[in-house]
Amino acid sequence: MADRDLCYLALHEARALLDAGTVSSLALTEACLARIAAVDGTLHAFLTVTADLARAQAQASDARRATGQVLSPLDGIPMSLKDVLVTAGIRTTAGSRMLENFVPPYNGTVVQRLLDAGAVLLGKVNQDEFAMGSSTEHSAFGPTRNPWDPARVPGGSSGGSAAAVAAGLGYFSLGTDTGGSIRQPAALCGVAGLKPTYGRVSRSGVIAFASSLDQIGPLARSTRDVALVLQVIAGSDPLDSTAQPVPVDDYAAALTPDLRGVRVGIPREYGLGTLAGEVGTAVRAAIAQLESLGATLQEVTLPYSQYALAAYYIIAPAEASANLARYDGVKYGFRAAVTGSGADSAGVDLMSRTRGLGFGPEVKRRIMLGTYGLSSGYYDAYYKKAQQVRTLVAQDFSRAFAEVDLVVGPTSPTVAFRVGEVDDPLQMYLMDIYTIPANLAGICGISVPCGFAGDLPIGLQILGRPFGEATVLRAAHAYEQATAWHLRHPALPVLPSARLEPLQES
Amino acid sequence: MLTPEEVAHVARLARLDLAPDELATMRRQLSSVLEHIDQLNAVDTSAIPPTAQIFPLRDILRPDVSRPPYPAAAMLANAPAAADGCFKVPAVLDGEG
């Protein structure tokens, strides 16, 4: 099998070849590393490639398999991790100059679970700085390119994860989703990406952005693969008291080829019947496909969803302004040079200069917005108001899910846009208009490929009840089985002008 | 529109040293985003409790068993400056520099 074909296997197909003894983990790993070397100069999906570690982990996996001691369905499977997940002994930057040389002393819970399951780490992938953005243009280390058209963005903030999976650089990746940062890049890169329910996956060891919204989840080339990864990372954790002790379903067992008995809600407010352009056409066709698979369709109403974006841009920056207060130039990370002594020059100036130089423009904007919304005299008008609207957004979904099992619509209002095309912050924020309500309500949702506008992928978003991942995955899987969008792969042209050298592990 | 003084005040609260051109850009961009956020005023929330946490959570406890701490050297490995097993910062009290 040619390397490109090996690299584009789905995770579950690669696993079957490993189980059959047709291919070794080392062969899969070498094929992925060779493909990274060949195409990542164009894409810049990886910030750090851990080639030596990957080979050692693959050889250890092959040795286990030779003695019949396979740890899990992920044993020997090459993966990448968003650089916001801390990895012991491996540089973890969160896409920021602030953490350019930060080497964590421990593994995040999900990282440890994947390593304990035998997965092979190819490296750490690019993202918007501290996961703030919708295009991966806000990485301090330069943008990632979309494999379908390197002149365009992969979406964000988990753009490195989505681009890596779409380009065949690993069989899955973990991203994080605070307002759409797994689902939107999955849509723009034509892969499957799941935001689990808030509390389904431990957040211990994810560099915090907005703690009441952040959630880690998988991106892969099929829904079955997403289910296999979720099975390993889901569940409670003594290190995260918000990771709930709700039993973890058998996600692979939930996958069925039909959707009989599943009630699908179409939000009236999305105006899907008249939504213009190829996104509207593709999503309408996808909904018809769900019906032909046995699902029943029903209109639902989410009257407060239109206010979700405004509420989010108070709540998320407020939490960010508190979480990012830790970057003060004292315990770890970047420190600006200051001269003189005394409380102002050594204290306030050290912090302010460190933060002024260490953070990029989008992170500064969010810290400013959050600080403003929490500041004396504005708290009730902004922060409290936003949390009240959050209650209404969540109640919308509670009412809808009393009538239906799933809510569907587009993941993103547009296909991938050009690098540099969206330069107004508010316009960039509006890219997450369909994904943000789920974060405010804490519910789960997936994006799966449902069509193309020319060569550019379109995503279908399927939202489910709290801890309803099994039903979401079931619908996404049934849709995939009836369609072939997820089987298309980019031709990946090489743009000489976009060539960038990936940072190699020293 | 936020005033330049308001933007400078928030930057000081946030401990962000912003150059004059950054302050000007920030003023324009924050004002635009806040204008969008002001649509929340159209929602009657007088009887709506603010969300404190999205799902009702019971207290989640674990056994109160001590675990070995990380070695000081591991904790100091990422410090911008360290001395004698401590984080080192510039003197903040005059006369002790």
SSE inventory with pairings:
The complex is a heterodimer of chains A (506) and B (97).
Chain A: H1 3-7, H2 11-20, H3 25-43, E1 46-49, H4 51-66, E2 78-82, H5 109-116, E3 120-125, H6 159-166, E4 172-176, H7 183-189, E5 192-195, E6 216-220, H8 223-233, E7 263-267, H9 277-292, E8 296-300, H10 308-323, H11 343-358, H12 361-374, H13 380-403, E9 406-410, H14 425-429, H15 436-441, E10 444-453, E11 456-464, H16 469-482
Parallel strand pairs in A: 2-3, 2-4, 7-8, 7-9
Antiparallel strand pairs in A: 1-3, 4-6, 5-6, 5-10, 9-11, 10-11
Helix pairs in contact in A: 3-4, 6-7, 8-16, 10-12, 10-13
Chain B: H1 4-13, H2 20-37, H3 72-76, E1 82-83, E2 86-87
Antiparallel strand pairs in B: 1-2
Helix pairs in contact in B: 1-2
Can you tell me about this structure?
The complex is a heterodimer of chains A (506) and B (97). Chain A has 506 residues and is an alpha/beta fold. Chain A has a domain at 3-257 and 469-487: Amidase signature (AS) domain (Amidase signature (AS) enzymes), CATH 3.90.1300. Chain A is built from 16 helices and 11 strands. An 11-stranded mixed β-sheet of chain A has the order 1-3-2-4-6-5-10-11-9-7-8, sandwiched between helices. Chain A is globular. The model of chain A is unreliable at 495-506 (pLDDT under 50). Chain B is mainly α. Helix content of chain B is 34%, strand content 4%. Chain B contains 3 helices and 2 strands. Chain B has helices at 4-13, 20-37, 72-76, and strands spanning 82-83, 86-87. A two-stranded antiparallel sheet of chain B has the order 1-2. In chain B, a hairpin with a 2-residue loop joins strand 1 and strand 2 (86-87). In chain B, helix 1 (4-13) crosses helix 2. Chains A and B meet through helix 10, helix 11, helix 12, helix 13 and helix 14 of A and helix 1 and helix 2 of B.
